[in-house]
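Reading a protein record of the kind used here takes only a little practice. An example makes this concrete, so a full record is given next.
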Amino acid sequence: MHQKIIILDFGSQTTQLIGRRVRELNMYCEIVPYNKFPLNDPSVIGVILSGSPFSVYDEKAFKTELADIRGKYPLLGICYGAQFMAYANGGTVESADSREYGRAKLEYINASDPLLKGIETGAQVWMSHGDTITALPDKFKIIASTDHVPVAAYRVEGEQVWGVQFHPEVYHSECGTEILRNFVVDICGGKQDWSAASFIESTIKELKEQLGNDKVVLGLSGGVDSSVAAVLLNKAIGKNLTCIFVDHGMLRKNEFANVMRDYESLNLNVIGVDASEKFFKELAGVTDPERKRKIIGKGFIDVFDQEAHKLTDVKWLGQGTIYPDCIESLSITGTTIKSHHNVGGLPEKMNLKLCEPLRLLFKDEVRAVGRELGMPEHLISRHPFPGPGLAVRILGDITPEKVAILQNADDIFISGLREWGLYDSVWQAGAILLPVQSVGVMGDERTYERAVALRAVTSTDAMTADWARLPYDFLAEVSNKIINKVRGVNRVTYDISSKPPATIEWE
């Protein structure tokens, strides 16, 4: 049983980043809602309280009773988590005179405190808060300050309880990883035994115990997650796994044939289904993005169910669900960000038990597991691609003609990234077909044709993303190729918006 750090999620946008930072220290952790602490889990060795969009004195603020946790486990509060512990114990938290966002320097540090071991005065941290702790409760002692924030970090005397006003999980906090290591390894006693190899070993063992001689059916998408899940299941149960790859007509150019070849080389038992005609018919005239996703999700379920019923004695549905899918699909505030293609209604419709071997992994961990399993690099390093495919990169209604235009434009863009050696430095890239036509001149003729937007972002976790600074010469070459070679396109634009506020996909 792996040791475990529990991260109580109070709704912060950076909660997943805390989890990734802890995992990068080769320590296993789980993110749970702020009020769902697993009281009887003997593997828990420490607890982190996340930030929150709320102020601690708001009526809607997320609050929880820490009596069963405090004193039993080392405790670290981050931003709201630090404010909450101070406020709940009689301290004062007030709206700051000026909201502090961005870089700050620790001007005072208690170097003898174990949380701040090795951290020097002047270390850069990242602040993001509109409130500040103006008075600490008894026994809460300041261990770090900045010019503007007297209580940048505190410790409760005689207890293993700490709070930091800044965000150590954010990359801009230069000493953040060290602070988290001090907490997780030195204070909590973490053994740092979490790795891709240990995950594979323990997961294959668990899958054999869970599934026995039962048969499993799994829907492949061509993406990293479902592919790694399939190879992992194949290692555990071999021929008892049947994979179904549905072509809904909105995959990338030649993707169906190429991916089928890849799967066959991995010795996976795969059934390929071309259902493009069905999907185009059902999507005709539909323009609403969420409705498109729902139609494709339901259509996939229907085709998959039809194929799966041709198999005998199947008891489990395998899925490539990963940790961000589980967290993002329904946040603790109950707000759906977008419908995830792989957490839909298949198990209910098919009356199958669900098997999700990757559901506790972040995307970079999935890739590490794939490499450890010996999968080909071009499958592992593939950019994320939406389940509904090009349907959510065509703004407006879907037609076979529009898909063909976008496939050709997208192929030029992605091939160009590979040829220029830029593909691996980009997290995700693709072309978007816009629902506008613009005037152009080709030869001596005036044209009135479609516009394509190119989108490329850099990211570490997809929760935040910045637009990729691709070379102008590259963009010029790709633009010229698309306009000259793709009939129906006379204008190419480049999307320079970041997430937030823009999402990576346009729909």
About this structure: Confidence is low (pLDDT under 50) at residues 333-344. The radius of gyration is 25 Å. The chain is about 30% helix and 25% strand. The first strand starts at residue 4 and ends at 9.
